[in-house]
Every structure is written in structure tokens, then in C-alpha cells.
Design brief:
The chain is mainly alpha-helical and about 250 residues long. Helix content is about 75%, strand content about 0%. Helix 1 packs parallel to helix 4, helix 3 runs antiparallel to helix 4 and helix 7 runs parallel beside helix 11. It is globular, with a radius of gyration of 21 Å.
């Protein structure tokens, strides 16, 4: 049970602080760098905090890759995905709940020139940090999410096997870089739970388009697992004729 709670809490942190950085800066000039860092550093901190308990996945695509690599039992994989989805949904609900206080802040009041706005109006206008793409660019979004999720999970699958690198920090910074690059195109999910949770509350096109993130991100994670297994194979070194002779003499 401890590992499922850890996955819930870690996913909550990632989604709450990541999407919160988008939502609570809606009245000011948003920066792709700050959004990327919010996601990346939140993930790094969550891995440092809970990685020793559950492995620090916080992402169904990562858990799928670990299951394919036989680093996670399939039964545990199902429990992880449920915990991650719940953590993401609760995080989006918390961000939604915080909009009421945000609308009362001086930043929003100044931006609205004293006019009032309901939470529903704000979410309809500014969103809830959901990932989305323009109409007609679904396959472009699918391709970007597939390739970048593949690269994201591939790095995770490799660095988590190395003892001489700060894996949580590398994974967090790598996520931040990927989000900054693709934010204007797909919003940069690379995580089915992160994509689905805010879309449930916003609905509309965000919910209609969410299949792209669910399929592309899980497929990218699966492909990354096979690629990591291939790259991790030990190369067999052929014996030289001299070594063969010495072996026969022995």
C-alpha cells in the first residue's frame, strides 16, 4: 500500500504544481521556461521524496515501460496506474478549487479592471493547464507526443540503472526541456494521467483530443522499453586465435 500512496502523492505534486504554474499565471505573461521548470522540478523533488518507496514513476507510460522490462510486476502496474490517475485527478480538482482565491488576487483584479469573473468563466477562458492542439493538427500532435515520450521514457529507463548519476535531477531537467520545446504544439504531456485529469474538468475539445495523448504516450513508453532492452544488451567479444589456442592448451 505504501508504494501506491507514494505514486498517488508524487503524481499529485507533478500535476498540481505543473498545471498550477499555468493556471495561476494566466493573468500575467506566461513563460514556457517557467512552466517547463515547474513540471521538471516538481517531478525531480517527487522522485527524490518517494522514489525509494515506489521507484518514482508518477506516469503510466513509465510504469508500462518498467513492466515490459520486467522491473515491475503487471499486477503492481495496474495498481500504479490507478494511483497515478487518482493523484492527477485530485490535483486538477485542487487547482480548480484554487481558482476562486486566484480570482480575488490583486493580479487578476487589475487585469480585469475591477470586473468580476466566475470560476466557470475563467476555466472556459484560461483552461486548467490541460494539454491540447489546434484543430487539424491531431496527427502532428500524435507524432510529437509519441517521439518525445519515447525519448523521455528511454532516458528514464537508462539513467535509473546507473549508480553514478543523479537520476531524479536528470529526469526532471529532461522533462523541463521537452515541455519548453513542445509546449506551443501539444502542451507537452508525455504522461497519460497528466493529460487526462485536467481534460475531465475542462471537457470540450480538451477531452475530445485526449485520446491522442493516451495512445501516443503509452505507445512511446512501450517502444522506449524495447529500445532500452536492446541498448542494454551486453556485447559478446569474440576471442582472438591466440586466446583460443591458450584455452585449448589449458
Amino acid at each position: 500500500m505504501r508504494k501506491y500512496i507514494a505514486e498517488f502523492l508524487g503524481t499529485f505534486m507533478l500535476v498540481f504544481f505543473g498545471t498550477g504554474s499555468v493556471v495561476y499565471s494566466a493573468a500575467t505573461t506566461q513563460s514556457a521556461i517557467t512552466v517547463g521548470l515547474a513540471f521538471g522540478l516538481s517531478l525531480a523533488v517527487a522522485i527524490y521524496a518517494f522514489g525509494h518507496i515506489s521507484g518514482g514513476h508518477f506516469n503510466p507510460a513509465v510504469s508500462l515501460a518498467m513492466a515490459i522490462q520486467k522491473r515491475l510486476p503487471w499486477v503492481t502496474f495496474i495498481g500504479y496506474v490507478i494511483a497515478q490517475l487518482l493523484g492527477a485527478i485530485v490535483a486538477s480538482a485542487a487547482v480548480y478549487g484554487g481558482v476562486t482565491a486566484y480570482l480575488k488576487s490583486s493580479t487578476v483584479t487589475t487585469a480585469l479592471s475591477g470586473q468580476s469573473m466566475t470560476v466557470k468563466q475563467f476555466v472556459t477562458l484560461a483552461g486548467l493547464g490541460q494539454t491540447n492542439f489546434s484543430d487539424g493538427s491531431g496527427w502532428y500532435a500524435f507524432a510529437f507526443e509519441l517521439v518525445l515520450t519515447f525519448l523521455f521514457v528511454l532516458v528514464i529507463a537508462i539513467v535509473t540503472k546507473l549508480n553514478n548519476v543523479p537520476a531524479p535531477f536528470i529526469i526532471g531537467i529532461w522533462l523541463a526541456v521537452l515541455v519548453v520545446v513542445v509546449l506551443p504544439i501539444t502542451g507537452g504531456a508525455f504522461n497519460p494521467a497528466r493529460a487526462l485529469a485536467p481534460a475531465i474538468f475542462v471537457q470540450g475539445k480538451a477531452l475530445t483530443h485526449v485520446w491522442v495523448y493516451l495512445v501516443a504516450d503509452l505507445l512511446g513508453g512501450a517502444l522506449a522499453a524495447f529500445a532500452a532492452n536492446f541498448l542494454d544488451k551486453k556485447e559478446e567479444v569474440a576471442s582472438t586465435p591466440k586466446e583460443v589456442k591458450e584455452t585449448k592448451k589449458a
